[in-house]
Amino acid sequence: MTNDYPLDLSNFKFIGRRIQVSAPGKVILNGEHSVVYGKLALAASIDLRTKVEINEIDLRNKLVVQFDALRLSFQYDIQKINEVLLNHPLPLDSEDLLDRVDNFVKLTQPNLSPTETLAVKAFFYLLIGILGSSSIQLTSLLVTASTELNAGAGLGSSASFTVCLSAALLQLIKSKTPEGYFSIEGYKPITGELNLIEFNKQDLDWICQWSYRAEKIIHGTPSGVDNTVCTFGSVVEYRKGSLPKLIEATCSLKLLLINSNVPRETKKMVAKVAEYRRKYPKVLDHLLESMDEVSTTVIDKMSELSQLSGTNTDDIKKIHKSLAELFTINHNLLNSIGVGHKKLNDIVDILAEHGLSGKLTGGGGGGYAICLIPPKFDAVCLRQAVITLECHGFDVVETKLGVRGVTLDIFA
Ligand SMILES: Nc1ncnc2c1ncn2[C@@H]1O[C@H](COP(=O)(O)OP(=O)(O)O)[C@@H](O)[C@H]1O
Ligand SMILES: C[C@@](O)(CCOP(=O)(O)O)CC(=O)O
Questions:
Q1: Which ipTM did the prediction report?
Q2: Are 20 and 409 in contact (CB under 8 A)?
Q3: How far apart are CA 385 and CA 66, in angstroms?
Q4: From the CB of 267, is ligand 2 less than 6 Å away?
Q5: Which catalytic reaction applies to this protein (predicted)?
Q6: What confidence tens digit (pLDDT) does each residue in 336-357 have?
Q7: Atom of ligand 2 nearest to the CA of 222
Q8: What is d(CA 333, CA 148) in angstroms, rounded to the nearest whole number?
Q9: Which phi and psi angles does 280 have, rounded to 5°?
Q10: Are the beta carbons of 76 and 108 closer than 8 angstroms?
Q11: For residue range 1-12, what is the model confidence (pLDDT) as tens digits?
């Protein structure tokens, strides 16, 4: 199969449903990697989004797909997909579905790069699992994904992508089966009034669950924090197996996102920590436990911060100093478990020279670092820090935290 990127989208005539959804990326403020082992993490959505569109098109018997972030386009005959993947539908939680998709992608697109393969597998897994759990037939579709996030850099691009795909496919089946029932046994019916204007709590729970399953393909053993934040948005206290808790206070925090421009893959970094833990279980468990303590202390400090009024300037300063120190401790702990990088340390050093504190975020080994900007921080000094970082080849953007989760932006 050839890569036809970029497709001339004006060649397609839209004839039926038009669905566009978007979901934010995320930053982990504290607790990356330790969260995989059941420790506490604090994460927040950011103001950079992924967008997925599904359009029914006037092109007989074709599924056309384009992923801008990977500069990848491909087309399939629907008949082939039906024969191999959909004729005997399997629910999303079936191991056999994963094997079926694996073989299908290997056979039909053997020349994809490893990153492309992961994205294409996640796509087919969701498409087949979700459509296969409903009574609707696959019709000719154009599916496009684009993003403001740098993929594979620690800002949750993969979760943002799988959340959007899950949401767009859910909207498709909701709009085509107004009775709102999945047809496969074992799937609970969507109950309550059918709402085609926005996603309700029950929809969001499905989207979150499905994207978690697809994240497993891309990540290996995801903790679930990324898909939770990308689905629900906000600032979230997250521990695997417990209900996520929203934290309001941190929404006013400002953050710099600094791209080290060093490529890496989350899956490999998570595997590296697992290997360290296998070799040195006691050492690693103590380090992971310390990360848990860091997250707990940060959450306590943020809750103290939310109780102070704007006039307690000394107390506010003191808490921000503690948050900065805890960021540094967290960064050093992440270095100790093997997910640091020299460039990330350079970023943290440059920030420190300007009176700021930073840490790596997400999978590490490259990708992004983050820096909390204390309130009333000297604007000239902040500008200087940004200029110095840029002179060293790092890209810097300021972002808002705690934005909305997945949204239905167009439905026609
Ligand atoms: N917008 C997108 N379109 C297609 N695939 C994507 C997109 N965003 C992420 N991916 C997939 O997710 C992988 C990156 O995941 P990961 O290494 O976890 O990084 P991140 O920290 O950005 O989530 C990419 O290599 C690709 O396979
Ligand atoms: C390392 C980890 O804690 C976060 C990964 O974040 P990202 O995919 O690199 O954005 C893994 C996880 O929580 O699943």
A1: 0.97
A2: yes
A3: 38
A4: no
A5: (R)-mevalonate + ATP = (R)-5-phosphomevalonate + ADP + H(+)
A6: 999 999 999 999 999 999 999 9
A7: 14
A8: 30
A9: -130, 65
A10: yes
A11: 788 899 999 989
| DSSP assigned state of 135 | S
C-alpha to C-alpha distance for 181 and 343, rounded to whole angstroms: 51
Q: Which of 108-122, 180-194, 238-252, 379-393 has the least mean pLDDT?
A: 180-194
How do 62-67 and 141-147 pair as beta strands?
parallel
Distance CA 279, CA 195 (A): 51
Alpha-carbon Rg of the chain, whole angstroms?
Answer: 22
Q: Which atom of ligand 1 is nearest to the CA of 226?
A: 23
d(CA 255, CA 75): 40
What is the CB-side half-sphere exposure of residue 355 using CA atoms within 13 A? 13
191 CA → ligand 1 middle, Å: 33
Q: What is the pLDDT of residues 102-144, one digit of tens each?
A: 999 999 999 999 999 999 999 999 999 888 888 788 999 999 9
Residues 34 and 30: their CA atoms lie apart, in Å, by 9
The span from the first CA to the last CA of the chain, in angstroms, equals: 32
* Phi and psi torsions of 111, nearest 5°: -95, 10
pTM above 0.90, yes or no: yes
Q: How far is CA 73 from the centre of its chain?
A: 22
